[in-house]
Design brief:
Layout lengths: L9 H7 L2 H9 L4 H13 L21 H13 L5 H14 L4 H6 L6 H28 L12 H8 L3 H21 L4 H14 L8 H12 L6 H10 L3 H9 L3 H13 L6 H10 L3 H12 L6 H14 L5 H5 L7 E6 L2 E6 H13 L9 E3 L12 E3 L3 H18 L6
Antiparallel strand pairs: 1-2, 3-4
Helix pairs in contact: 2-3, 3-7, 4-5, 5-7, 7-9, 9-11, 10-11, 10-12, 11-12, 11-14, 13-14, 14-15, 14-16, 15-16, 15-17, 16-17, 17-19, 19-20
Length: about 425
């Protein structure tokens, strides 16, 4: 049996419990949601069913006749029976009754008998799970319009991943894993959503394996913003390295939907985090790696130096000789990044990186142009933050002059 709770609920429970509530939580046997419902019913006196009316179909509320209502009330009273078997039978009967029993269960949520209150909580949890599972089954089967199923964040999900069969199945899996979080996200402020997503991701960076379903829910919510939060980006960057996640993105059934979500996260990340987001896109061979590089290099003068540096190297790694003209447009960009080498401050200009990348794409020899790099490694292994250095200004000027003289010999198409 899956549960309608998540790790993100734990801090909220822990900070609000009084001793009685903690005792109730230990007593409840059906998981975190059951404890949450117990806390809500005893501390606030509010309804502990779903905020939306739960019905037997998408539009018509359940109506009980007099005899059925009398039978349900008898079962509710039997929840407090001194005989264990009778109590268990009453639980099973009320769960089997399903959604029509919800109004009576709600009305008796503050029953004077503690045993009855606790078992009502148990029944409400089970019935709500049945309700959610019914809706998700209808979604997967495509038997009803999803808009009538009251699924949390469904419209945003379709916008991000489409409405294919695989997309619907993946939504169902994510909803089963993190239903409470998806419901929370429909009403909460974005900063609060980011905080809960980041906190949940952090719990999986300590050796705990994440499920694809939970990762999907967190990735989806983390990317459903205009600008991605740094803590969320860091969390996704680290957790996506888990084998189960990498396999799902690269070649699993849900690869297309997951790639759409990953691209969405990358393209909505702030430029100040460009190295992190673009490195992730490169590692996973996402379409957004090239798209983001093209965006930055289309107007490099409007972008920070680190973003331009990263985009140049990404273009070199994913591009071809046909991209050299794009790099040549940067040959007048003298903005610099500085690095300390043997206690000396050296600088790499944007045009230096563009020239080195052009030479690599053209098959030229960096050493002949007296180009040094930090780190000193094969260009195929360059990090996105590689530094390109010349011994002095004269050597730099000579390198650019040499390129102008040799470019068409290296790449004949550049002369066309």
């Amino acid at each position: 049996m899956w549960r309608l709770g998540s790790r993100t609920d734990i801090p909220e429970l822990a900070t609000t419990m009084n001793p009685l509530d903690r005792g109730l939580m230990r007593y409840c046997r059906r998981g975190l949601l059951t404890a949450s419902l117990a806390l809500a019913s005893l501390a606030t006196g509010e309804s502990i069913a779903s905020a939306q009316p739960v019905t037997t179909d998408s539009s018509t509320p359940a109506v009980l006749d007099e005899e059925s209502e009398r039978q349900l009330l008898e079962w509710i009273e039997l929840l407090g029976s001194p005989q264990f078997d009778r109590r268990e039978q009453a639980v099973k009967a009320l769960v089997a009754a399903g959604e029509p029993a919800l109004p009576l269960l709600e009305r008796n949520a503050r029953h004077p008998n503690l045993e009855v209150r606790l078992r009502i909580i148990e029944v409400l949890s089970e019935v709500r799970q049945q309700n959610v599972e019914r809706r998700l089954k209808q979604l997967i089967e495509g038997t009803v319009d999803p808009a009538t199923l009251d699924l949390p964040m469904w419209e945003a999900w379709v916008e991000a991943t489409g409405n294919s069969e695989d997309s619907r199945v993946l939504y169902a899996e994510a909803a089963r894993a993190e239903w409470n979080l998806l419901e929370y996200a429909t009403e909460a402020e974005q900063n609060d959503i980011n905080k809960r997503v980041a906190e949940t991701l952090s719990t999986y960076q300590r050796g705990t394996t994440i499920s694809v379903a939970t990762f999907t829910a967190l990735l989806f919510l983390g990317a459903d913003v205009e600008t991605v939060d740094l803590n969320v980006l860091n969390g996704v960057y680290n957790v996506r390295r888990q084998d189960v996640v990498t396999r799902a993105i690269e070649r699993g059934r849900y690869s297309t939907s997951l790639i759409s979500l990953m691209d969405r996260l990358v393209l909505r990340s702030p430029r100040t985090y460009i190295t992190l987001s673009l490195q992730m896109a490169m590692d996973l061979n996402l379409p957004s790696a090239r798209e983001l590089s093209d965006q930055i290099l289309a107007h490099p003068e409007e972008e920070p130096e680190r973003a331009v540096q990263t985009a140049i190297i990404a273009l070199m790694k994913r591009g071809s000789k046909d991209d050299i003209p794009t790099l040549e447009k940067l040959f007048e960009d003298r903005r610099a990044l500085r690095i300390s080498v043997n206690n000396l401050v050296r600088e790499t200009q944007m045009r230096d990186i563009a020239l080195a990348a052009s030479l690599v794409l053209a098959g030229g020899d960096l050493a002949e142009y007296k180009i040094e790099t930090i780190p000193q490694t094969d260009p195929r292994n360059w990090p996105l933050t590689v530094y390109v250095l010349f011994p002095d200004g004269e050597t730099r000027d000579a390198a650019f002059e040499r390129w102008r003289n040799e470019r068409t010999m290296l790449v004949p198409s550049l002369g066309e």
